[in-house]
Predict the structure.
Amino acid sequence: MIKGRIRDQIIDGVYTVAEDFPRLIDATEGMKDTRRSSDEQRVLAEASLVARNGEDESPVRPDQIIAPRRREDVGQTLWQTFNVIQENLIRGGISGRRQTAMVASAAARHAPSMASTRMSD
């Protein structure tokens, strides 16, 4: 039964999270106690963009994703920085574009159309 296996996997997952919860709380508290300089925040933002986009050029700049949206997120702790980056990457709404995309779209506009390059019957 597939439904029974899925239910068992969900239950196992809940127990795993419950067992790890104290460790996660400790890690969170450690992040709240760890202050980061502006340069370190930027490095974390750059690494986050690479994790999200791979080695491809990102459409947004690191300074855009470390800009807090809410007053509560202003600060330099690792926890605040992590949450700001996560929110900005997940929620989006940050405008930007890739340089390579602009070049590619400009090249496409000047390329001959498929109709003019079609072979005669």
